[in-house]
Design goal:
about 200 residues, mainly alpha, about 70% helix
């Protein structure tokens, strides 16, 4: 096999374990070198906290939407309509939410440079809140939506087709709302008072 064609496809759980091991190693190395001045272990906890928050939110959303429209996950997410669809949908929600949580957490950590390490978590509340509002708005506005692919089954006037359309719009609203929440969180983090160098516990330079 050519090197360009090789790729490493690790299970999601293995990737999570490797990421946690990496964070633990980096944190312990800095803790051993800097002692009480070490901050990366706190930043690692922020990332883990954001990941757990995102995973929990993803599970909560998909636990509702998979009941409203199993077809959205069976057809739209290609999870199949066999037994265990709910479990597969919740697993997908935890993976997507956790990945988004880590990404958003990393962005907030960069935005919090010079601020308290806790600033990202203190202001991350706006992300799930606006995501939930966006999902609710998307579901409510679904009946007025007309720009959907012609081949999509949610054009079916049946009850199942309308439910799929609502769930599709709700998920789109969640994505948009989470981005707006991230922008709001960044704004609030940047407005947090900086910590002076004598008592600095913020992101290291």
């Amino acid at each position: 096999m050519r090197p360009s064609a090789m790729h490493l496809d690790l299970p999601f759980g293995v990737r999570v374990g490797l990421a946690l091991a990496f964070l633990a190693c980096v944190s312990m190395i800095e803790l051993a070198r800097r002692g009480r001045e070490a901050v990366r272990w706190r930043l690692s906890l922020v990332l883990v906290g954001c990941a757990l928050l995102g995973a929990g939110f993803g599970i909560a959303v998909d636990s509702i939407t998979v009941r409203l429209s199993p077809d959205y996950f069976a057809w739209g997410k290609a999870l199949g309509d066999g037994p265990g669809l709910t479990g597969r949908a919740l697993r997908l929600g935890s993976m997507a939410g956790g990945s988004a949580g880590v990404t958003y957490g990393a962005i907030l950590i960069v935005a919090a440079r010079g601020r308290a390490v806790s600033a990202p978590l203190r202001h991350a509340w706006s992300i799930p809140c606006l995501a939930a509002l966006g999902g609710l708005a998307g579901g409510l506005l679904a009946p007025w939506l007309r720009t959907v692919p012609d081949e999509a089954p949610f054009l079916d006037p049946s009850r199942e087709g309308q439910a799929l359309l609502r769930v599709w719009c709700a998920h789109s609203g969640v994505y948009l709302g989470s981005l707006l929440g991230l922008v709001w969180a960044i704004r609030n983090v940047r407005k947090s008072p900086p910590i002076n160098k004598e008592g600095r516990i913020g992101v290291p330079e």
